[in-house]
């Protein structure tokens, strides 16, 4: 049984987590994987009285999470912290020349984890970023994103966090249907893509097999 009664599950990240949430409504989960996972877990564990919080913000990089971590994580006192960040750390390099090296990304990510562990007794879930070759130029992102994916995997191993291995899962899914079916721009998931993330997230935390 992965969850305890009254657990608070926080989803943190960028636009993929944000997914249209209403910033004026603290309980809004958006319309993506956070809503799908929260709905499924609420159905599965009604006796646990679980609370789900979404604080994803579109466009965020790891450094942006650092700046708002006290307000949007630690002060909320979550018992589960799910972090899904990284693709914008690559995207900004290609669309505006703002480079985030793998070392800088790791330093920011490690800071988030360390501050969380120092302040909270929370379980960690790390979601690796992915990119699909839609349009074709997304293939060029690999040289920048792949090292960041490996950072997330290594941090999950080091800190004993649950890992959601999305990059491989989306690559495998793209054998069944073309990449654009899962993410029209290679980054932002379709409804089916969000369902893939929600299912992978629940498997990673042990809620489903």
UniProtKB/TrEMBL annotation:
Domain called SGNH hydrolase-type esterase: residue spans: 13-196
Entry-linked Gene3D superfamilies: SGNH hydrolase
Name of the protein in its database record: GDSL family lipase
Species classification: Bacteria, Bacillati, Bacillota, Bacilli, Bacillales
């Amino acid at each position: 049984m992965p969850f305890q009664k009254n657990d608070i599950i926080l989803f943190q990240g960028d636009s993929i987590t944000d997914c249209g949430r209403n910033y004026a409504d603290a309980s809004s989960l958006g319309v993506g994987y956070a809503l799908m996972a929260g709905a499924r877990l609420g159905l599965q564990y009604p006796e646990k009285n679980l609370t789900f919080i979404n604080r994803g913000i579109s466009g965020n990089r790891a450094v942006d999470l650092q700046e708002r971590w006290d307000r949007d994580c630690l002060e909320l006192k979550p018992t589960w912290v799910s972090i899904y960040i990284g693709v914008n750390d690559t995207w900004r390099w290609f669309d505006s020349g703002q480079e985030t090296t793998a070392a800088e990304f790791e330093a920011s990510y490690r800071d988030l984890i360390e501050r969380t562990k120092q302040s909270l007794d929370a379980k960690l879930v790390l979601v690796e970023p992915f990119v699909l070759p839609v349009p074709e130029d997304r293939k060029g992102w690999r040289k920048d994103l792949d090292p960041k994916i490996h950072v997330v995997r290594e941090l999950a191993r080091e800190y004993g966090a649950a890992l959601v291995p999305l990059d491989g899962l989306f690559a495998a899914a793209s054998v069944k249907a073309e990449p654009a079916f899962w993410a029209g721009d290679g980054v932002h998931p379709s409804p089916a893509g969000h369902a893939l993330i929600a299912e992978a997230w629940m498997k990673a935390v042990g809620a489903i097999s």
